[in-house]
Design brief:
- With 295 residues, the protein is of the alpha+beta class.
- It has a single domain (5-293), classed as Jelly Rolls, CATH 2.60.120.620.
- The protein has helices at 14-23, 34-53, 68-71, 76-79, 85-92, 126-129, 242-247, 275-282; strands spanning 25-28, 63-66, 96-106, 139-145, 157-159, 186-188, 195-199, 204-206, 215-224.
- A six-stranded antiparallel beta sheet has the order 1-7-4-9-3-2. A three-stranded antiparallel beta sheet has the order 6-5-8, with no helix packed on it.
- The longest helix has 20 residues, at 34-53.
- It is globular, with a radius of gyration of 19 Å.
Amino acid sequence: MTTSTTAIPAGITAEQRADFERDGYIIVRNVLSTEEVAHYTAAIDEVYAAHKAAGALGPDGQLHKLSAVASCPPLAGLASHPTVFPLVWSILGWNVHIYHSHLDVHPTVTERTPYRFEWHQDGGRQNRELETNPRPRLSVKLAFWLSDVSQPGRGNFQVVPGSHLTNRIDGPPRRDMQWPAPEGAIEVCANPGDVVFFDRRIWHARSFNYSDITRKAAFFGYTYRWVARRDEVPAESAEYTPIQRQLFDMLDAKTVLDPELSGDHAWGHFPEDVPLHGYLKENNLLDPSYPPLQP
C-alpha cells in the first residue's frame, strides 16, 4: 500500500501550526481508513507472530521493534501518508529523512511492574550537548494509532502540553524512586486511524496498558538529512516513490558528479536532486518567507 506523492495536500493549516507551536503536539483524526487500519495491523501482527515464534518478545509479550519499514516493509505507506506527511515538511522543510522509527505491540500488563520514571524528551544526547534554552526542535514524529486508546490506561501516549519549550522537568534522583507525574501531564486519547504529530522536545512517556485491548502503533521520526540516521535502510523495492526513497536514505549521491562534493548531498546543497524539493517547487508549495522551505 504505497502512497502516491501526487496526493500530498498543501501543508499545515494556520490553526494546526498555532496549536502545535503552543502545545508541542496535535491530534489528526481519521487519517487512516478502516481498510488501512486493517492492512497495517495485519502487517504488524505478522512481525509479532514471527518474534513470538522465535521467543523474541519482551516482558508481558511486548514488542518494540526499531526500523519500522526495514522490519515490516508494508508500513512504507505510512512514511509519506498524504494526510499527515505535509505536517512534517511544513515544519522541517524539504531536506528531511526518517532517522528513527519503530512499531509497537503492548498486550495487557498482567502484573504491576517495578516503578521506573520514564518521562523524557526524544533525542538522547542532544538534550545534554546542545546549550540553548529551549533547545532546537531538530525533529518531529508521527504516531499512527492502530488500536483503540480512546480511554486512559491503554498504553496511551502521555504528554505535558507546552513542555517542548522547557529543558527540564522535576524528576527523582533515581529513576526507580517513586515520583508523581509531572504537573499538567495528560494521557492522549485516540481512536484507531488517528495520528499524533509531536515535537521531539515535548516531555512524554507511555502509560501501562492495563486494559484488555492490545496496544498497536507505528512511530516515524523525521529530521534533517545532515543528522545521523538510527534506522536500518530498508531493502530495495520498485514500489517506493522518489520521496519515500529520500526518506529512507536511498538516494544515489553519485548524481553529484564532483567526488569532492558528493558527500554534501545530504546537506541540501543540491536541491534539484532532492525529490521533496522538486515536488514542492512543482506545486508552488515552497515558501520564501520560511527558511526551511526556501530553495
